[in-house]
Here is the input.
Amino acid sequence: MMRILRRLTGKQPHPEPEPEGPPQDACGLRARSRSRSPVGPSSGRGVPDFESPPPTRRRSSIGDRPLGARQPLSSGVAAFGAQQPQAPGIPSRRCSLGRPSVGGGAQPSRRSQALSRRSFPHRDFENPEAETCWLSCLFQSLWHSVVFHTAFEEHLAGSKCIPGPEERILAALQQTWAAYKREEAAEGQQQPLLSAADSAADAERPAPSPGGEGPEARLVPACELAEAFGRGYGDMSEALALIQDELSQSSSPAAVKIAELMVLVPVSAMSGSLPVPELAWQQALDWQVSASPLIAVDLSSEPAPTGPSCELLARLWVPSFAQASSIETEGLGRGHRMVALVCFMWNVQHYVAFCCRQSDPKRCVFFNDLPALTAGAPKDLMWSEVPELCGRFLLTPRLMLYESLAAAKEVGHESAA
Here is the structure.
């Protein structure tokens, strides 16, 4: 078993999942997730009450939606990585996420190939109803994590894991994963590291549109994810919790282990102060989850931000790489690097995401499935340029995904063993 999976502590049983409603047509569904965030102040590492809906909920679409203040997450949601009891009838056995592919011989495993790529491929999502931005940002964040990407590719993608009839989210992740890869195969290339000139040219290219032509017009559909997460309102932290909840109860030991990779740390602004990374790290230390391979930080912030406040908050969280040596040390607790920064546009109720380039950690890729809302924004940019962009378009940092540097390196070492 990978060492990173044995380091998780402070685990508690997870509540029973809410029964799923009747299946609906995937591509015809207006995608809104069930809002499950409990309301109220933190009260220790409890278990969230997923059955009680909050009094105010935030919509993910941009049409005819009233603004509502976000309710603070209970610390119970932070039991995101809590260990689940073994499902009945499933023998307990060790499952190493670092195991080389069977019959690989001298051939490199898929994980080794993924880790040796210069950069993960980047694709944009469809959003014809202007309601699935939270799903596309969630998927982009997980796709661009070395830890999650390699574990999913090695153990859950395609025929490696057959979901049960109740595992709708896992099935949707598999289908969307395959669609994302199909677009990569259609272009017949893997995204290389852009030179400065190429980056500038890429930033000036118009955003792809569903009705366009050529490789850039092939957008990834979000309808499978929309059906799996169901009706309701979209929220990033709730979506992550739902993924972890389903994987932790899977009949697949690998899915259970992947669920244990993740932990969610909610951070609220104190009176008169802004939430800072140090506060999130201290929270992780207090809950003894600082060794988790994947840490998602969920921010509570003001519902009507200004441009300067958005820029200031982003500047507190994005890596600045002020020194050349800081690539390996700048992040959360100097042991976790930022994979994705998801921002919320309060004025239009829309999510966007910045995802780190694996080929150049000082750069990131900007994802917005409604590009007209941020006309003129570059697609590829330095992390140091993100705060100014947040101020210009009122992008409020909402959720940050970090991965352990040691865990990312370890999956590479074990895959080569």
In short: The domain at 27-84+123-416 is CATH 3.90.70 (Cathepsin B; Chain A). The chain has one domain: 27-84+123-416. The longest helix spans residues 168-187.
